[in-house]
Each structure stands twice: as C-alpha cells, then as structure tokens.
Amino acid sequence: MQPPKPRRGEIWNLSVPGEADPALQPALIISEDVRNGLSDGLIVIPAFSSGRLGPTRVPIAGGCGGLAGDSVLFCEEVTRVGRDALSGGPLGPRVPERLLQEVMRAIRRALGEVIL
C-alpha cells in the first residue's frame, strides 16, 4: 500500500490518538508540497464545527475543501502529525489560495506578529 500524498491546501481527516472511540478530526494541510513529499510529518491546522472567532481563527464555509458544514480553523493550534494519522484521502479539492493566505496571517498573529 502506498503512503498517502497530501498537498498543501487540502483538508484530510486525522485519526485522533488516545480516544476510546477513535474520532476523526478534519485538518488543513499547510506544510509545503516539497516537505510533504519528503517528510513523514505534516504541518496542519485543525478545523472544528464550532468555536469563537477571533484574530487567530478563520471561518471556512461548508463545502470548501470538502468540509460537510461551516467550520472554524484554529490557527493558534499549528500541529505536526505523522502521515500515519491521515485517514482516507482529501475530503475535496484544495481550498482557495486567498483562504491559505488568511490562515498564514492568523498563524503570524498567534506568534505575536502585529498584522494589520
């Protein structure tokens, strides 16, 4: 079986370890494609079906990237996951570039950079 080949801007379901009933968590792949092809680790932003909006959180409409419903990307929770955490394939097509740019600005805010 070939390992999955995630690409930047795709949303994948991740297996959440340590759960009694293994849950799947959607997450946006933000690491660069070259890195994704060479490393066993991926850099992701989790998406939740609800959550307060703020300077480090980005709303994403249902259908975008294959998400079933409206969600919120928690950009303050940049996370590295192993490729083995990926479940299935991407939920849909890549998200628009403007959304990725908004996510990157929110990450920079989370790190303390002043972004207007």
From TrEMBL:
Output the superkingdom of the source species.
Bacteria
Q: Which InterPro entries is this protein grouped with? A: PemK-like (IPR003477), Plasmid_toxin/cell-grow_inhib (IPR011067)
Q: Which GO terms describe its molecular function?
A: DNA binding
Q: Name one Pfam family in it.
A: PemK_toxin
Record-given protein name: Type II toxin-antitoxin system PemK/MazF family toxin
The organism is: Handelsmanbacteria sp. (strain RIFCSPLOWO2_12_FULL_64_10)
* Organism placement in taxonomy: Bacteria, Candidatus Handelsmaniibacteriota
